[in-house]
TrEMBL record:
One of its GO terms (molecular function) is UDP-glucose 4-epimerase activity. The keyword NAD applies. This is UDP-glucose 4-epimerase. The lineage of its organism: Bacteria, Pseudomonadati, Bacteroidota, Cytophagia, Cytophagales. Homodimer. SUPFAM superfamilies: NAD(P)-binding Rossmann-fold domains. One of its GO terms (biological process) is galactose metabolic process. InterPro entries: NAD(P)-bd_dom, NAD(P)-bd_dom_sf, UDP_G4E. Residues 5-327 form the NAD(P)-binding domain.
Amino acid sequence: MENILITGGAGYIGSHTAVALLEAGYQPIIIDDFSNSEKSALEGLKKITGQDIACYEGDCNDAALMERIFTENKLSGVIHFAAFKAVGESSMLPLKYYHNNISSLVVLLETMNKHNVENLVFSSSCTVYGQPDKLPVKESTPRKKAESPYGNTKKICEDILVDQVNSKVALSAIALRYFNPIGAHTSSEIGELPLGVPSNLVPFVTQTGVGIREELTVFGDDYDTPDGTCVRDYIHVMDLAEAHVKAISHLKEKKAPFYDIFNVGTGNGNTVMDVIKAFEKVSGKPLNYKIGPRRPGDVVKVWADTAKINDELNWKARFNLEEALRDSWNWQLALSKKQ
Ligand SMILES: NC(=O)c1ccc[n+]([C@@H]2O[C@H](COP(=O)([O-])OP(=O)(O)OC[C@H]3O[C@@H](n4cnc5c(N)ncnc54)[C@H](O)[C@@H]3O)[C@@H](O)[C@H]2O)c1
């Protein structure tokens, strides 16, 4: 079995990707410092896969630890999820984000280069597009000025990959630009664990549904969209996990140096009200929400053109919005039972 290192593998998307890699015949190895995850994710992984997945506890900025991991394991690729992702916090603590998100990529690339590990999949985001002038957004759409230090770290990391590949080192990299990951593993053993008040819509919706939050505020209903609320491309995290497996396989067919970018979304835009209605349907209960003022900095509408990933990686989203919300809801119910 080929070993794939997953940085941030105890986190939301990383843990689902560990399952997908195992199912595809790869052996995942995790490094995580648990700065935004809990060890219970590893227990969930064991329940789903029947395996104890090796996990190094530590920081990817720790060059000595990275050196040890690369020495102890023959790796055929790396998927780099580890990063901080709270957009709001990044405006208050920019250096925390620049340090963690950028330095960890630099340390990783140095270690990969030293150990002749060529294949890297990097977690980027549709945030690099800002509010695109044309929809759906293609990979060739010019990136806009970042709205937050977090968004800027994704742009800078993409640029670092381009520079590194252009320097003709043996690196084959794919940046996956995720749209809006939601849902949880259908087993409800792993899912998103927002620490504190969730800044994303769906965890806020499910926490309101279960009574942890009193009320959801919809930020603006007077935008130029079908029902006036913001539009996003919500993608089931299990579909997103599969996209990483496809990206790793694709890299193996490419000769270094190589770099490419793929959007990972469903290709459909859904409004906040679509999410609320779909949630009410799958949970069978009304959601307590109110309409509030617009939130500064919100992108009004964005969804993906998925033709490139459909054609070149032979990947397509399988789950729809209701299925994803069903799994988010089941995960929330499972979490509430444990607490
Ligand atoms: N979830 C989203 O909405 C979304 C959208 C676009 C892009 N992304 C990107 O996808 C990646 C994964 O996101 P996620 O939602 O799974 O986040 P997450 O916070 O659930 O997972 C990230 C994991 O990385 C770990 N981590 C952070 N810094 C680390 C470090 N220096 N060393 C070791 N471990 C570290 C955290 O403990 C956590 O387990 C991130 O790079 C994020 O920016 C996420």
